[in-house]
Amino acid sequence: MSHTTKNKSKLLARVRRMKGQMEAIEKALDAEAPCNEILNMVASVRGAMTGLTAELIEEHIREHVVNPDRDDNADRAKGAAELIDVIRTYLK
Which pTM does this prediction carry? Predict the structure, then answer.
């Protein structure tokens, strides 16, 4: 079973929240809201998308490459944990 299937409801909830945020941006643009408000809303959506991307990549590594919590090879487990940390840092 794929990690996206196991976490389907959680992932869909995140996507639906982002959809709501995008709709709020659309409404703000239609209402001619101040640009700083719109920029803040866009930044929030970007942060949410980045968080979702990081989660998907991390779970992909754990599911399809190597899970550092379950791998018997200490070097490979350490490398996977380091890769996950780098991705989290990069996508902040």
Answer: 0.84
Single-letter amino acid, residue 71:
D
Domain positions in the chain are 3-90
Distance from C-alpha of 54 to C-alpha of 6, rounded to nearest angstrom:
17
14: its two tokens? 């995140």
| Residues 6+ positions from 22 with CB-CB distance below 8 Å | 45
Is 3-90 CATH 1.20.58.1000? yes
Find out whether 77 and 68 touch, Cβ atoms under 8 Å: yes
Euclidean distance between CA atoms 66 and 77, whole angstroms: 7
Rounded CA gap, 46 and 28, in Å?
17
Per-residue tens of pLDDT for the chain, all 92 residues: 578 888 899 999 999 999 999 999 999 999 999 999 999 999 999 999 999 999 999 999 999 999 999 989 999 999 999 999 999 999 88
